[in-house]
């Protein structure tokens, strides 16, 4: 059973269709770690151009999906609730396997450092128990400019 569904996710982060990639949150320990899910389907708009006849999820969108899961984790921390998390840096990104339609991305994020207005997370995107992508992401947290 999901801890957060798509509507609850959109209540927290500003991403909307066609670039809201988290389907649901499986587990969440606020301020510590999160596991979320992205079901990759052939209906994704990016598959029309990447690559016709050999559909592969672009690496940059795997990173974006990890960043969205990480922002949920960060914004569920009591001190950052009601704010917006912006991706500030990507470190040590490694792509280990391609992600194709029909794959289920399990996103594992652990908060490794938190300061007044920033956080650093260790991330992994897994398919069938194997790492597709891993990276360390840094976030800057700021006041929300508009209501979501």
Describe this structure in words.
With 148 residues, the chain is α+β, with helices and mostly antiparallel strands. It has one domain: Roll (Thiol Ester Dehydrase, Chain A). The chain is built from two helices and six strands; from the N terminus they run αββαββββ. The protein has helices spanning 6-12, 59-75; strands at 24-29, 33-39, 83-95, 104-114, 118-127, 130-143. It has a six-stranded antiparallel beta sheet with strand order 1-2-4-5-6-3, with helices on one face. A hairpin with a 3-residue loop joins strand 1 and strand 2. The radius of gyration is 15 Å and the shape is globular. The model has no long low-confidence stretch (mean pLDDT 94).
Rg, nearest Å: 15 Å
User: According to CATH, what is the topology?
Assistant: Thiol Ester Dehydrase, Chain A
Can you tell me the number of structural domains?
1
Question: What average pLDDT do the residues reach?
Answer: 94
Looking at this structure, what is the CATH superfamily?
Hotdog Thioesterase
Instruction: Tell me the total number of β-strands.
Output: 6
């Amino acid at each position: 059973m999901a801890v957060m569904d798509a509507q609850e996710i959109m209540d927290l982060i500003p991403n909307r269709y066609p670039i809201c990639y988290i389907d649901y949150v499986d587990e969440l320990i606020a301020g510590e770690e999160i596991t979320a899910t992205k079901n990759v389907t052939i209906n994704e708009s990016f598959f029309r151009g990447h690559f016709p006849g050999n559909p592969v999820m672009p690496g940059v969108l795997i990173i974006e999906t990890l960043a969205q899961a990480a922002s949920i984790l960060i914004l569920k921390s009591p001190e950052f609730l009601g704010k917006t998390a912006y991706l500030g840096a990507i470190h040590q990104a490694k792509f280990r396997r391609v992600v194709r339609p029909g794959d289920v991305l399990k996103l594992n994020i652990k908060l490794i450092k938190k300061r007044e207005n920033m956080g650093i997370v260790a991330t992994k995107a897994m398919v069938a128990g194997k790492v597709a992508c891993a990276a360390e992401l840094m976030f800057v947290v700021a006041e929300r400019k508009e209501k979501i």
